[in-house]
Amino acid sequence: MATSFATKRLSKELNKINGQLPPGISLVKADDFQEWQLDIKVLDNNPIYLNQTYRLMFKFSSSYPIEPPEVTFLACPDRPIPMHPHIYSNGIICLDLLGMQGWSPVQNVESICMSLQSMLTGNTKNERPEGDQQFVANNRRRPRDIDFYYHDNTV
Amino acid sequence: MSLQGHNPPPNTPSSDYSLSPRVSRRQPRTQMSTDRAANLNISHTVDLRALVYVGTVDQNLICAICRCALVDPVTTHCGHTFCQSCIDDALSHSQLCPVDRSWLSLADLKPSPRIIVNQLDDLKAKCPSCSIAYARSMLQNHLERYCKEALVFCAGKNTEQGCEETVKRRFSDKGCLHYTTECPDCQESLLMVELEDHREKLCDQRNRHCERCGAELLRCKESDHETECPDAIACCKWAEYGCEHEAKRRELPLHLDECSFKLVGPMAEILKKEINTLRSEVRTLTETNQLQERRIKFLENGFRDPYRPLDYSDFSDQTLSAIPEAGNPEPLSAGSEYLLSLLEAQESKMSQLSAAMTENEAKQTTLLFNETIPIKNELAEIRSMQQTTSMHVRWLLRFRLQDNHRRLGTGPGSNGGSDGATGGGSSNDSPLPRRLSDGLSRDIITKL
Ligand SMILES: [Zn+2]
Ligand SMILES: [Zn+2]
Ligand SMILES: [Zn+2]
Ligand SMILES: [Zn+2]
Ligand SMILES: [Zn+2]
Ligand SMILES: [Zn+2]
Ligand SMILES: [Zn+2]
């Protein structure tokens, strides 16, 4: 039952995505309802991201959209990981919107893409998060769990 | 019993909605036949989230969680509407309104206003079995009682055979079809219920080439082809007026040029049309004539009436009319007949008027519909564009604000604490992204 709910919702979203997407967002792969890939571009002239396209990987659990999808940047030829103080060099994104606390079931793939576009648009620092090397070398957790862990730590 | 030619099914929403109980009371026979069928019905559950709707469903009727037209809608105290099951799931995960993030518990949910429920009930969706469109609220009933393609118990269930199979409803009035028969085309033995499907789709002998025109056709549809085969022998277009020419259908146009009736034919056609209009005119004239005759009689009778004791004439007319001497039964019956015919004339006028009105209404709605669709599309586009721009504007503002803070040194230091903290690399960053994304998500959410 739960699986089919996520599947139905995702098939609705896919229908919409196949029809029309906001500028700078395009669908790359959606062969099933577990894993999608989309490309995003930054639309303004921010020199950090000029003429670049970035690939996003979405992983959906059977509880989507009650639970957030796992969203990471994916490095592949022509598709680097964007420089940002909240994006680790392994593609993991530190964005509350994608964590258990910040997520809302009215969000969808399209709105997540637009949020990430905006996150890049607003950025001026051409740098990685502090401790990036160490984090990338040691992390074995899934992005969702990390988010949870460091909310606990900070508060 | 054929696939083509759907009569409007008995539960067509527009007329049947309010009328059905009255109609069935007036016609006990229909009631009985459905009763008999009722014990073969299977209860179907319609998955409302899997329906295909006709046209686009109004954005305001879409649940933000499942993205489908609302099912059992409930409205929160903050004024947002969701499916009952969707918001239940969401609240079991976090006790916030998914749209505006205000505190929310199951107790804050109320059934949505009647107007929303009615709009949802009226949404037209395709029947999952026969693909004919019905109001969503009628689908369950349609599937369980009327849908020709929905499954019901085999009619053999109630006989001594005790057949336990299910069949499509359109087969159910033919008795149990679960006996073996032979395909007339390929001689394969199969169940009678499967024969139609087999002959149309599966049989490897199902196709045949027309021996006249060579076109490929289904064996079970041979008779349909007969009337359109270009190589079949057909009569001249003017056969009705005396031409005896017969030729292959494709060659008939050639004959038309040399047909000896080619001048007479069209004339005869016109005459025929004229005669028909004249006939109908004559018919209406006789009708009015009859009406006027009755009227004259009525008036004449009215003049005679004063000289006659009224109650006596009534009496004589109704009870003693068998006796020839008991006065002329004409006057009264003529009078009431005249009134009756007046009534009839009025009634037919009324029905004409209402027919014209419904026709007009239909025209108007399609016109309106066609006009509003592009407007709606444009609106949706503008809405989404406005969403992105306003989001970006807010981002730029926020960015500018942070810039200012930074320039002012230790401003009203909201980041002050965490800036100085010596936590792990990642914890150092968390306050900033969280605030950013919060603002962001609210931006998007409020626009949705
Ligand atoms: Zn709300
Ligand atoms: Zn819903
Ligand atoms: Zn149906
Ligand atoms: Zn049977
Ligand atoms: Zn066959
Ligand atoms: Zn033919
Ligand atoms: Zn002829």
TrEMBL record, chain A:
Family annotation (Pfam families): UQ_con (PF00179)
Top-level taxonomic group: Eukaryota
Gene3D superfamilies named in the record: Ubiquitin Conjugating Enzyme (3.10.110.10)
InterPro entries reported for this sequence: Ub_conjugating_enzyme (IPR050113), UBC (IPR000608), UBQ-conjugating_enzyme/RWD (IPR016135)
Cited SMART domains: UBCc
Keywords: Ubl conjugation pathway
Residues in UBC core domain copies: 5-155
Keyword Magnesium annotated: no
Protein name, per record: Ubiquitin-conjugating enzyme
Organism taxonomic ancestry: Eukaryota, Fungi, Dikarya, Ascomycota, Pezizomycotina
UniProtKB/TrEMBL annotation, chain B:
Annotated spans, Disordered: 1-34, 406-448
PANTHER family named among the record's database cross-references: TNF RECEPTOR ASSOCIATED FACTOR, TNF RECEPTOR-ASSOCIATED FACTOR 4
SUPFAM superfamilies cross-referenced by the UniProt entry: RING/U-box (SSF57850)
Coiled-coil ranges (or none): 268-295
Zinc finger (TRAF-type): 198-252
DNA repair among keywords: no
Residue ranges annotated for the TRAF-type domain, each copy included: 198-252
Protein name: RING-type domain-containing protein
InterPro entries (UniProt xref): Znf_RING (IPR001841), Znf_RING/FYVE/PHD (IPR013083), Znf_RING_CS (IPR017907), Znf_TRAF (IPR001293)
Segments of skewed composition (Basic and acidic residues): 435-448
